[in-house]
Amino acid sequence: MKKKINLTAAEKWDILNKMNQKRRRGKIGTAVLSVCMVLCLAVTVFGNYLLLRDSLCESGARYVPSYEKIDLSDLIKKEIWTDEDYDTIYRQTGLSRAGADRTARNELAAFQDAFFFQGQIRHEYLTPITPHDYQLDPDTGGSFLAPMVPLEAGDIILTSTTHLFGWRHGHAALVVDGVQGLTLESTSIGEPSSVSHGLQWFRKSTNFLVLRLKDKTEEERAEIAARAEEELTGLEYNVFVGFFMPKDQCANGRKPTSTHCAHLVWQAFLNAGYDLDPTGGPLVTPQDIANSPLVEVVQTYGFDPDTLWK
């Protein structure tokens, strides 16, 4: 027979209070678990969405012509090229009239081979979440290097091969010495804008564009590049230029302090009176510059020669 336990009112209240606290902790634990499950589901869904975007982004890594690669031997031998010949060269090599006229004829075959080249696409990571697309060269086992047209100071080089969660933000550079292959670039956080031998990086990319300011002499474009080298070197990298600080860093005689890759190119030409951003928004991107009506194509590699970077 069980012994009956007589509890005081205070003891009963203490037991009841402990039971209520236990129930509350159980409810709180269930709520916390539910929130964690919802957050995990949201992170999983969002992560899969980003992975899907990045996967779909792969289709834009490089354009390879679906039309026939033809023999250019007879065309190369011609003393004078017609408009039709230049169009053929453009669609077979990626070199426009301006590019073809600057390129030795015995090098056109190499440009054609590169234009039709289909290598395995690989990635190197500039940051843990920022891939850069390049191609494997089956002959060397290393990166495939595309030939690049002879450059002039003031030329612009763009690529869409750097991307972030499916957005091909790309990269841009300004040529300051075509003979030496020197470019002025703003590359990443913590690295001030500087002049370097940056062409190799573009040449191993799966695509690039060489653009040139229309209807200007070589001397005029060289002056723009020289001024940019003088005024826009050593600037802090800042992707928020145009949002939390003026887009035009040189307005009213100000000394520029910040820039990023496309902004540097845009600023260099704005200082000479040419606005290469057709969108006019606070952010200028390499794609904006690619679609500026003020520039013309010298070479396209890995981009559709008809649509370019639309």
Fraction of helical residues: 25-40%
CATH fold name of the largest domain: endopeptidase fold (from Nostoc punctiforme)
**CATH class categorisation of the largest domain:** Alpha Beta
Q: Tell me the β content.
A: 15-25%
The gyration radius over C-alpha positions equals 29 Å
Tertiary shape: elongated
**How widely separated are the two ends?**
90 Å
The CATH level-2 architecture of the largest domain is identified as Alpha-Beta Complex
As residue ranges, the low-confidence spans are: 36-52
Average pLDDT confidence is 89
Number of structural domains? 2
Concise structural overview:
This protein is α+β, with helices and mostly antiparallel strands and 310 residues long. It is 36% helix and 15% strand.
Task: Please describe the topology of this protein.
Layout: H1 9-57, H2 73-77, H3 83-93, H4 97-101, H5 108-115, E1 121-127, E2 130-135, E3 156-159, E4 171-177, E5 182-185, E6 194-196, H6 199-203, E7 208-213, H7 218-231, E8 236-237, E9 258-259, H8 261-270, H9 286-290, E10 295-301
Parallel strand pairs: 8-9
Antiparallel strand pairs: 1-2, 3-4, 3-7, 4-5, 5-6, 7-10
